[in-house]
Amino acid sequence: MSASPIDLYALVPCAGIGERAGAGGPKQYAAVAGKPMVRHTLDALARVARLRQTLVVLSPRDDQFEKHVTGTTAWVAKVGGASRAMTVANGLAHLRERGANADDWVLVHDAARCLVQPAWIDALIDACVNDAVGGLLALPLADTLKAETAGRVSATVDRARKWAAQTPQMFRIGLLQEALAHAGDAVTDEASAIEALGHAPLLVPCSMENFKITWPADFALAERLLRTRP
Ligand SMILES: Nc1ccn([C@@H]2O[C@H](COP(=O)(O)OP(=O)(O)OP(=O)(O)O)[C@@H](O)[C@H]2O)c(=O)n1
Ligand SMILES: C[C@](O)(CO)[C@H](O)COP(=O)(O)O
């Protein structure tokens, strides 16, 4: 009997409250260039042919997704947690319940990184699909890096070999479940949890356009970039 093929899934944590963005509600539903932010994200993922399925993970209290996103083929589960790490862990358990295997890959991608492009996701898959660990899209730091105390510079931090982590982050589902169970709630991305198990995720260079909408001013920048895309 032949082994079952390895599938690739996307998991979109979409259960945040968007406190820093000050959009008057969860930022993933704010309109950017004519569409709710999460719709841009899902449309980009839907154009990646190698993804078998996308799972969107919502807050159990979410009453906006269905209003804002109609006609999606993505799976939806209202199993989000109090932290991003919990949302991802609960989403992984849901994927397993729906038939995903421990050896399958998952690409975890923030709903709030709505400028992601299919070509960047394909580049991540190409780089990681034969890798023992997996990896993430990221950007080498260009600016000089300062540490702060009470609004003043306390130190200049060596920026050599430092990268800003983006998403998607691509790992085997089983390894990521083990890593998140081990790391707990404090990790802010999947790679940190994998690192805590002693692995070294692959850094795959991406674009600064793959930024996360976090602050109020980010909406206008995202709008400008999306409206001027060819
Ligand atoms: N408990 C949480 C927290 C965050 N997220 C998701 O993780 C991504 C990145 O998180 P972030 O930008 O921090 O979003 P928010 O938590 O919504 O923002 P803030 O921290 O400003 O409240 C977002 O797509 C967000 O919806 C999630 O699914 N579950
Ligand atoms: C996963 C992430 O987007 C990588 O940069 C980031 O760590 C999320 O952090 P947040 O504090 O939850 O926005």
Describe what you observe in this structure:
The protein has 230 residues and is of the alpha/beta class. It has a single domain, classed as Alpha-Beta Complex (Spore Coat Polysaccharide Biosynthesis Protein SpsA, Chain A), CATH 3.90.550. Helices cover 30% and strands 23% of the residues. It is built from seven helices and eleven strands. Strand 8 and strand 9 form a beta hairpin. Helix 3 runs antiparallel to helix 5 and helix 5 (173-183) crosses helix 6. It is globular, with a radius of gyration of 18 Å. The mean pLDDT is 97. The structure holds cytidine-5'-triphosphate and the ligand C[C@](O)(CO)[C@H](O)COP(=O)(O)O. The site of ligand LQXTBERG has 8 residues, from strand 10. Cytidine-5'-triphosphate is lined by residues 13-21, 27-28, 57, 80-84, 87, 110-112, 212, 214. Pathway: Isoprenoid biosynthesis; isopentenyl diphosphate biosynthesis via DXP pathway; isopentenyl diphosphate from 1-deoxy-D-xylulose 5-phosphate: step 2/6. Catalyzes the formation of 4-diphosphocytidyl-2-C-methyl-D-erythritol from CTP and 2-C-methyl-D-erythritol 4-phosphate (MEP).
| Derived structural class | alpha/beta
Outline: globular
Please give the CATH class: Alpha Beta
Ligand catalogue: cytidine-5'-triphosphate, ligand LQXTBERG
Protein name: 2-C-methyl-D-erythritol 4-phosphate cytidylyltransferase
EC number: 2.7.7.60
Keywords: Isoprene biosynthesis, Nucleotidyltransferase, Transferase
Organism: Piscinibacter gummiphilus
Topology:
Elements: E1 8-13, E2 31-32, E3 35-36, H1 37-46, E4 53-57, H2 65-68, E5 75-77, H3 84-97, E6 105-108, H4 118-128, E7 134-140, E8 145-149, E9 152-157, E10 163-172, H5 173-183, H6 190-196, E11 202-205, H7 216-227
Parallel strand pairs: 1-4, 1-6, 4-5, 7-11
Antiparallel strand pairs: 2-3, 6-10, 7-10, 8-9
Bound molecules: cytidine-5'-triphosphate and ligand LQXTBERG.
